[in-house]
Amino acid sequence: MKEPQVLAGPKLAWVLGIVGGVLLLAGSVFGVDWANYFYGTDSIYPAYGKPIITLLGLVLVLMIGANRLGKKDWGLLLAAFLCMLPTDILMSVVVVSSTLSVGSWVFMVGGVLSIAAHIFLIIRLAHGVPYLKKFKPADLWLPLVIFGGAGIIVIILWPDVVRVGHAVIAPIYTAFFCTTMWFAWETVRYRLYPRTNAVMVAIAATCWFATEITGEIYNLEMGTLSEVMFRLVWVFYGTNVILWALSGYRWSKK
What we know:
Blueprint: H1 9-39, H2 45-63, H3 71-96, H4 105-126, H5 130-133, H6 141-163, H7 169-189, H8 195-219, H9 224-246
């Protein structure tokens, strides 16, 4: 049986170089975002920079090659990124457009593609769902915290969710990103991935959870609170994107 190829050498340097480039790009994007807020400018640079972060994440996934955890694992991760990139482009279009709202068809298409990305990631993380086969009442705390916390937030925001036309997609989408987070943390508890990869997917899924909460508060157009949340979304989402990409690499033999 062929020995797993751990990421090392020049390729590791390339991967770290791309991650470094992402950090520089993200810093400039966040800086301009806050400048727009504090100085009343309207630069659209962040609308271009944010999808480029996802594009670089896709490049990292395409580079995995012989350093992958497995063929199926890589295929599902690639499929997720092929949904995430157009989603992020569409969401940036909505943000800069003067005619498109969060209730527009462009936003809804982006939402559906994002759900598809979650489906691919959930399948990737499932591993035959051993945690369901061995499920005990004591294991309920994790899904209860994740789904319960999201449910409480949705209930609090519900009047505004209805107001912007998200009464259908918001609960459905919430169920998917909560499931992704639940399965991601089960990979840590049940050691379904090498330790480094498991921690990466768990942190990535948690950041995506935070992304959706802050993002929906922005979508609800709640004044200053929404404007602040808008500038926090990609702090979480950019981290999420890069960690998902890096989670596809083999960092150790075990």
